[in-house]
Design brief:
Elements (H helix, E strand, L loop, with lengths): L1 E7 L9 H6 L11 E4 L2 H11 L2 H4 L3 E7 L7 E2 L14 H12 L4 E5 L7 E5 L10 E7 L12
Parallel strand pairs: 4-5
Antiparallel strand pairs: 1-3, 2-6, 3-7, 5-6
Length: 152
């Protein structure tokens, strides 16, 4: 499976989960390393658009493709909490992601809060099998200016 993420040029090959650890997110608390990826480039781009300010979207961003071997396990959330996709997010989703890392699982498939029928894939960079996830390619992200013109 090919996974996608959007990042700055300086972090193209950084798969350590440091960004999520420093800032936290919908699926992890600050201090917890996790790599957020998406099942498609368009979803990764949407996730970026809703999470970055207009000035940061105008900066050079890159599309990164990762190969996640098909034989590796992917966990799924048994039951999502009520209001799992509201903004700002609640601690319920953070607890799910933290538990996934605590159990030392490799990959957690979660629905996107933007388009719940599409999926993001949370990766645990501390898992032994994470070394089997391969960097494939990176190229500049080119967004239609209409996506960022009205964002401050």
């Amino acid at each position: 499976m090919i996974l996608h993420r959007i990042t700055s040029k300086t972090h193209i090959r950084d798969l350590s989960g440091t960004g999520a650890m420093l800032h936290g997110g919908r699926w992890n608390a600050k201090g917890i390393r996790m790599l957020y990826t998406s099942g498609s480039l368009s979803l990764a781009a949407l996730e970026t658009v809703v999470n970055l300010s207009g000035n940061r979207l105008g900066q050079s961003l890159y599309c990164v493709e990762l190969e996640f071997p098909d034989e590796l396990p992917i966990s799924e959330v048994d039951q999502l909490p009520k209001d799992w996709n509201i903004y700002p997010h609640t601690s319920d989703t953070v607890l799910i992601g933290n538990d996934f890392i605590k159990k030392n699982e490799l990959c957690l498939k979660v629905p996107s809060a933007i388009i719940p029928s599409e999926h993001n894939y949370l990766l645990n960079p501390a898992h032994d099998d994470f070394l089997k996830v391969r960097f494939l390619d990176a190229r500049p992200l080119i967004l239609d200016k209409r996506l960022i013109r009205n964002i401050d």
